[in-house]
Please model this.
Amino acid sequence: MTFALCWIGQGGFPFAAGGKTICVDSYLSNSLEKLKQQEGFRRLFPPPLEPKDLHADLVICTHNHIDHLDENTLRAVPQRRTLFAGPQSCLEHFGRLGIPWSQLVPLNAGQPVSLDQITV
Model:
């Protein structure tokens, strides 16, 4: 099985394998700098893609911090077929963003999540 991985900044990594794309901690905005209004919170480099261009089958947010669960990114991700996984705090946040509960997957520390042949 072919495996591809790239870094999109912060703790963000989309990877593709087995015809599926999984993205972990997709921070593709500059929300943190805008929120804190301090230059020290600026991204190190511009986002390598627009959130609307992130076509993931599964988006995993490891925890509920803005640079891991970025509302500006998640609102723009095409959600028609995307699943969203994370701990309970993230699931609640996804719900507040209007993501249907049927697309949410509980994921806690040490717990694997599978998508077809891929297990994270």
Observations:
- The mean pLDDT is 87.
